[in-house]
From TrEMBL:
Lineage of source species: Bacteria, Pseudomonadati, Bacteroidota, Sphingobacteriia, Sphingobacteriales
Protein's name according to its UniProt entry: Glycosyltransferase involved in cell wall biosynthesis
Pfam families (UniProt xref): Glycos_transf_1 (PF00534)
Residue ranges occupied by any Glycosyl transferase family domain in the UniProt entry: 178-344
Domain of life of the organism encoding this protein: Bacteria
């Protein structure tokens, strides 16, 4: 069989890494003689896909991007739809169509004209209005739907042929798989890694540090912004200076090899101000014995067990966040024990083998 896979990005953030995992499953399964990936542009993801020997096609996609919608860049959404016929002819050359996101408008318009097996993998929690629109489009699409968490599933109206498959992580090399050690500098190394935007919590975490200025905490913010939002990093750096936190906060650009970044940390924070559909950062951290402090909404409570593998705090509540962080500032043995617990939970629930088995069951049930 032949499969065509559509993805909205070419970076190496959480959704991109998860997409790559699925492509690796297709590649290893032996069920597909040809795998073609459609991307809107080139980027770091391309090199990883090329290692798998898949075909790559660059194509303008109609994306329901928040940036496009907020900046009224309607042309970037509408113009790609003019290639409807050529996309339909291309997709109909394949036995299976796999779409890695809910925001590709092309797919919804094409779906009624595609009679082969269709699978859409949803990794986003939309607002209430968009949820209603997407739920209607998904119902009309006639595809199988994979949700990356129960929280994501519950953000949509009830849909037939739906499955929940939690994201997984393949793990880092053994070089980095060590438990937390004592720090010669006496600092608690706190990591916030991921795309920088208005809701991932970078701004929140910086302001929260003003409540614990005297504590020996070093926050490292690692990540870059999406196109059109480059000014966000400069704004965060100015805020750090204005609040007098330059000795407690440092910035690094996004890097594709994140193992060393996680190994630097003692605890990883996921302070997202809006619900995370899943929280891949959390399981990556847990795979390296790092406990996680996360906002108690979205898919994160399905990953982090409060006071066992980290702490859950009230979303957008700085006092709640600081209280969780202070637990580790005051008790390094607790930090180390939670790190051991985090690694155990990762091995039990979020390993790659279990993920492949669940994905396999979704696809194989349509192939018989």
């Amino acid at each position: 069989m032949k499969i065509i896979c559509v993805h909205q990005s070419a970076d190496m953030y959480g959704s991109d890494r998860s997409f790559l995992q699925v492509i690796k499953y297709f590649n290893q399964s032996g069920d597909f003689e040809k795998i073609t990936v459609i991307l809107p542009r080139s980027g770091p993801l391309v090199a990883e896909l090329e290692k798998l020997g898949v075909d790559i096609i660059y194509m303008n996609l109609s994306l329901l991007s928040k940036t496009y919608l907020m900046k009224l860049q309607w042309g970037k959404i509408i113009f790609p739809l003019f290639s409807f016929n050529s996309k339909r002819k291309l997709y109909n050359q394949y036995d299976v169509v796999y779409v890695n996101t809910s925001v590709i408008l092309d797919f919804y318009l094409l779906a009624p004209f595609l009679k082969q097996m269709k699978v859409i993998h949803i990794r986003e929690i939309p607002n209430k209005f968009l949820s209603k629109v997407l739920s209607f489009l998904l119902k009309c699409a006639g595809s199988k739907i994979i949700f990356n968490s129960n929280s994501t599933l519950n953000s949509f109206k009830k849909l037939d042929r739906s499955f929940v498959v939690h994201n997984a992580f393949e793990g880092f090399s053994k070089e980095f798989t060590t438990a937390i050690e004592e720090r010669p500098d006496g600092l608690l190394h706190v990591l916030l890694i991921g795309r920088i935007n208005g809701w991932k919590g970078q701004d929140f975490a910086i302001e929260a540090l003003t409540k614990i200025r005297s504590s020996r905490v070093l926050l490292r913010i690692v990540g870059s912004t999406s196109l059109g939002n480059e000014g966000l990093v400069d704004e965060l750096k100015k805020k750090v200076e204005k609040l007098g936190l330059t000795a407690q906060v440092e910035f690094l650009d996004f890097v594709s090899d994140t193992a060393g970044i996680y190994a630097w940390s003692d605890v990883v924070i996921v302070p997202s101000t809006k619900p995370e559909p899943f929280g891949r950062i959390a399981i990556e951290a847990m795979s390296l014995y790092r406990p996680v402090i996360a906002a108690n909404h979205g898919g994160l409570p399905e990953i982090v067990e409060n006071a066992v593998s980290g702490f859950l705090f009230e979303p957008n509540n700085m006092d709640s966040f600081v209280a969780a962080l202070t637990n580790y500032i005051d008790d390094r043995k607790l930090l180390q024990q939670h790190g051991l617990n985090a690694k155990r939970v990762f091995d039990e629930k979020f390993s790659l083998n279990g993920f492949y088995q669940k994905i396999d069951s979704v696809f194989k049930s349509e192939m018989v």
